[in-house]
Amino acid sequence: MKTLIVITGPTGVGKTAAAIAVAQRLDCEIVNADSRQVYRDIPIGTAAPTASELAQVPHHLVGFKSLDEPYSASQFEHDVLELLPQLWQRSDHAVMCGGSMMYVDAVCNGIDDLPDIAPHLREAVLEQYRLQGLESVLADLERLDPDYYKQVDKKNPRRVIHAVEICRQAGVPYSSLRKGEKKKRPFHIVKLALNTERPALFDRINRRVDAMMEAGLLDEARRVYPLRHLNALNTVGYKELFAYFDGLMPLDVARERIKKNTRVYAKKQLTWLARDPDVTWCRPGELLDILNDEFLDSKRDWN
Q1: Among the four 77, 86, 112, 210, which has the fewest Cβ within 10 Å?
Q2: What local confidence, expressed as pLDDT, does residue 45 receive?
Q3: Domain of 142: which CATH number?
Q4: Of 139, 159, 177, which closes a domain?
Q5: CATH number of domain containing 271
């Protein structure tokens, strides 16, 4: 039976290297599950697989979207389910690697069927956000869907904007369309989450930010600065450097802010994963030791 091995965990923990090692062991290919690595032109800030890493194992859904192309968890679910049958033709396994938890859940559990957003409506909500700020969009969400307003992360513009788009497109509250029913998949799923001691993880994050800066993150952010209004760039690393370009903070403060916000994001990822009963936790260096036939047989879950 075909098996999708999911390798997830907090940012900076070493997922890419682990996924390559597993894919080489099982002679299979890798599907990206990072919502920012799907975009071209920002490989440094998204820690996308390098040319050397891409040469070691075939990767899919990396750098295939332009920054101005909208992309969502539901589109990702569709793309992965279309891709996997092609990968199954050459191997009984495939590896899906990434820390975008909504993307991982979309493939593992399915996502609610939601309407596609008309381009003019999407642009209207984004324009409202740009000109009037998040509070204006939140006020609309409270009016259109008070139930979801109570539970949404009110500091996450992407989720607030998405909910308002759905409400306006569907003409009904977003919460009324969220069924949360787990969908059956015609393949086994083995979900592995990498983690290490918190001080070690935070040290890895801090050192990775320094490495990104040395690799040219500042120039990369400057190149895409004219596109700063796009949702693809509403993410840690670019937001702080855009603030530096705007004269709102010195560069050394922006660098430290990137480290801090990345650490905060890692903690949110760990909190999300802690609620998932299907996850098997392991250290990055232990992954190949436990990934044997006996372990896979014990963990395969027929959805």
Answers
A1: 86
A2: 97
A3: 1.10.20
A4: 177
A5: 3.40.50.300
Task: Tell me which residue of 173, 166, 73, 65 sits closest to 118, measured CA to CA.
Answer: 166
The three-class DSSP label of residue 10 is: coil
Tokens representing 265 are 């994001």
Number of domains in the chain: 2
- Give the number of C-alpha atoms closer than 13 A to the C-alpha of residue 16, restricted to the C-beta side: 19
CA distance readout (Å), 82 to 34, 77, 85, 107: 18, 9, 7, 11
Q: What angle do CA 116, 186, 275 make, to 5 degrees?
A: 70
180-195: buried (b, 16+ CB within 10 Å) or exposed (e) per residue?
Answer: eeeeebebbbbbbbbb
CA dihedral 44, 216, 246, 226 (to 10 degrees): -60
Q: What is the pLDDT of residues 213-242, one digit of tens each?
A: 999 999 999 999 999 989 899 999 999 999
Q: CA-CA distance, 40 to 62, in Å (whole number)? A: 8
Task: Give the closest residue to 151 by CA, choosing from 186, 175, 122, 183.
Answer: 175
Q: What confidence tens digit (pLDDT) does each residue in 20-36 have? A: 999 999 999 999 999 99
Residue 233 is part of which domain span? 3-112+181-302
My answer on whether 41 and 143 are in the same domain is: no
CA–CA separation, 129 vs 145, rounded Å? 18
Amino acid at 204: R
Q: Facing residues of 192 across strands?
A: 7, 280
Q: For 146-155, what is each residue's pLDDT tens digit?
A: 999 999 989 8
Q: Give the Å distances, CA to CA, from 10 to 98, 101, 237.
A: 9, 10, 16
pLDDT of 67-85, one tens digit each? 999 888 889 999 999 999 9
